[in-house]
Amino acid sequence: MKKKWIYFLLLVALGIPTAYGSLATDPAALMKSSTPTFSTSITFGSTTYDFEGYVDYAVYAPGAYSGLLTLPTDEYVYAYQLFNSSNSDVSMDSLTIGLSPGITASNAFSDPSIGTTGGAMSAGAGFTMSQSVMYMFFQPVTAGSKSTALVFTSEYGPQMGGAVVSGGISGGAVISLPTPSVPEPATIALLGFGAAALLRRKRKA
Predict the structure, then answer these.
(1) Among 84, 93, 189, 204, which has the minimal tally of Cβ within 10 Å of its Cβ?
(2) Taking the domains of the chain in order of start, what are their residue ranges?
(3) How far is C-alpha 109 from the geometric centre of its chain's CA atoms?
(4) How far is the CA of 86 from the CAs of 53, 136, 144, 148, 193, in angstroms?
(5) Residue 180's CB: how many other CB atoms inside 10 A?
(6) For 68-95, what is each residue's pLDDT tens digit?
(7) C-alpha pair distances (Å), 44 with each of 9, 35, 150, 166
(8) Count of helices and strands (H, E) across the chain
(9) Structure confidence at residue 129 as a pLDDT band (50, 70, 90)
C-alpha cells in the first residue's frame, strides 16, 4: 500500500497523467454512465441564472474498483464526477446522493486517480440524517471546470435513484443517478426463479 501511494505522488509531481480512463468508459465498471445532463434556471433576488452541466458515473462490483484508494473488497463502489458547463452562470457547490430507506453507505472520499483528472477536490463528505451522502466543495466547481471523482462504498447493489447538484444556496438541479438500493420484490422473485431453474437443470443432468 505504501509503495502504491509513493508511486501515485511521483506521478503527480512529474505531471504524468494518472487517470485510468473516464468513468463513462472504464472497462472495470459494472454500470457505466449514460451522461445525465441538466439545464435549469436559478433565481436569486430579481435575477435569473443559467445552471448547466452533467455528471459522469461508474459503479464497481465488489473487488473491481480501479482507483488508488484502499476500499473494502466486499462492497460496491459508487463513483461520480461533476462537470460544469462553460455556459453556466452558477458554480457547483455540492452533490447529494439519495439513499433508499434502511440502506447504508460508508467510506466517502475524493479519489483524484480515476475519471478525468485535475478537478476540484471535495472539501468534505459525510452522511446526512436524511439518508443521503453529501459532498461539499471548499472551492466551488466553476463554469467550464470539473470536480475530482467522488466515491463511497455500500454493501447494496445499484438502482437508479435521486441526486441533487447544488448551484449555490438558492437552488440546484435534481437528476437521476445510480444509488445503493435493495432489489424490488419482483426482482427478488425473478432471481429466486432463476436459481430454482438452475437447480432443476443440474438434477436432470
Answers:
(1) 204
(2) 19-194
(3) 10
(4) 8, 21, 4, 17, 50
(5) 25
(6) 888 889 999 999 999 999 999 989 999 9
(7) 42, 28, 28, 14
(8) 2, 11
(9) low
Residue 3 has pLDDT above 70, yes or no: no
Which amino acid, one-letter code, is at 107?
Answer: N
Distance CA 157, CA 77 (A): 9
Residue with the larger pLDDT of the pair 122 and 133: 133
The amino acid at residue 55 is: V
Task: Name the grid cell of 112.
Answer: 483524484
Distance, CA of 103 to CA of 58 (rounded, Å): 19
DSSP code at position 21: B
25: DSSP letter: G
Spatial neighbors of 28 by CB under 8 A, at least 6 apart, are 20, 60, 64, 65, 66
Q: What are phi and psi of 194, to 5 degrees?
A: -65, -40
Topology of 19-194 in CATH? Immunoglobulin-like (2.60.40)
- Mean pLDDT along residues 168-185: 80
Residue 131 banded pLDDT, cuts 50, 70, 90: confident
